[in-house]
Amino acid sequence: MHIEVREVGPRDGLQVEAPISIEDRATLIDGLAAAGLTDIEAVSFVSPAAVPAMADPDRVMAAIHRHPGVRYWGLVPNVRGAELAVAAGMDALTITVSACPVYNQKNIRRRVEESMAAIADILDVAGLRPVDLILSCVFGSPYTGDEPSQTTPELISQARQMGVGRFTLADTTGMATPTRVRSMLETVGTDVGLHLHDTRGTALVNAWEAISCGVRRFDAALGGLGGSPFAEGAGGNLATEDLIHILDDADIHTGVDLGALLALGGSLREMVGHELSSAVAQVGPR
Amino acid sequence: MHIEVREVGPRDGLQVEAPISIEDRATLIDGLAAAGLTDIEAVSFVSPAAVPAMADPDRVMAAIHRHPGVRYWGLVPNVRGAELAVAAGMDALTITVSACPVYNQKNIRRRVEESMAAIADILDVAGLRPVDLILSCVFGSPYTGDEPSQTTPELISQARQMGVGRFTLADTTGMATPTRVRSMLETVGTDVGLHLHDTRGTALVNAWEAISCGVRRFDAALGGLGGSPFAEGAGGNLATEDLIHILDDADIHTGVDLGALLALGGSLREMVGHELSSAVAQVGPR
After folding, report:
1. Minimum-distance CB partner of A202 among B174, B202, B246
2. A200/B205 Cβ within 8 A
């Protein structure tokens, strides 16, 4: 079995940290590629005023050493972002729309309908590049409770009709449980990625449950970095090390070298200036 | 489905903390019973010189308000401990033998064979009381690697022949993974309890995997307290709150009131003087 791990640390991890240098961001991305990650969400084309740590995505992309066989993903909030992403040489684009209208307004300052309507133009700009629609707050929201789980299937259906070919379900504030993961996958199918946060200690168990349901794509962030600047207590991402640790032990192939990842985690700790939340980063693998 | 949760915080949690008062220990035990825990490992009859935080088990048991329907478990290291436990009014006894000879020597200062030989006499003293043999380091040991997983089935077989009717597999230093949990259960059967530590962030995923294999008994400690004084980096126990949180969401019955548990966690934080590692204790349930 092969699991595709998309590393989102350079984007979803670093966005809540104090800004680090372009060189460090490029070093992190290059290190991830060298460790065997084939999909890396490297940068974001959001407003640097809103998210200072994500400023200068074009300079980051110019500073990296492009690794053959790696897809470099860029998060784009709108059509203008998509144009910048294409100009910066991104291989693939992520779009975020929230299944929770309140969160969508806080995160992207748009109504869900406006975000959905913008997708068609983004797809035009993307051309043949893969575009992944990340639906946030799918398993619940601090603002609207369980409602987003009800609206998610319809959003997927709408986006599919617009031509979106790839979807990721995000548990933005750690409200998923194995039960809810299974239930959602029974509704929307398993040809989706999962983007899990560890707010309530459930990221790994939710990932494992999803794998047993048939999901084969996961977002994860080195060190368990992350959170959301627009949702309190969002908690870090599923830690890449912690995921690879149990996948390796299950003989599930990812192509990622855990040793290289752990060494890179040491550098990341220096870059961000604090301990990483990943358990395996702290104590080492079994 | 019903899952039996044995709360081990007053024993395996507090044993690595600075000693707290008899009153606080009794308050914790009474609070756990009030929250619906029907099995509580309340005290340990080990040497107070070796584990100062576990001193005066008889005084703790005299201070609690016995809750009808609760089994109060006491850990006994030897026959003398079993006699003291019976005198203190324990309902049920736990014995610990390590599947790792090095850990057994450090933990109980005996060879595994000596520990096993002592079981017969402990069973005599226990009479009709349930006796649970907790095998530690079953999923690996920092001293002997994966060897304990090989010897565990034979130890269970020996103990069963001696009359032990109940077994718990302990992941003392957090070396279990879902794969190893499933593999071990395929070998020894699912009529065992699991005692999991969260050293590598795997306690919850291992518990969930065990449930899907058919296991119905778990040890857990309020707040994720714990570790081992005799194995470096042992990490805290599976947090009772974190377990109940996902079991409640799965409509799996435990009889435990999560709200009461979280309120008690607030008191426990005061007692031990530091934050609890449980994610749900820190951010609240979904």
Report:
1. B246
2. no
In the numeric block, which tokens belong to residue A110? Answer: 């748009």
In the block, residue with structure tokens 């040491």: A266
pLDDT above 60: residue B231: no
Domains of chain B: 4-283 (3.20.20.70)
User: pLDDT (tens digit, 9 = 90+) per residue, B96-130?
Assistant: 999 999 999 988 889 999 999 999 999 999 999 99
Q: Most B CBs within 10 Å: which of A171, A196, A286, as the mutation test of the B interface?
A: A286
User: Which residue ranges of chain A lie beneath pLDDT 70?
Assistant: 228-234
List the single residue in A with minimal CA-CA distance to B278. Answer: A201
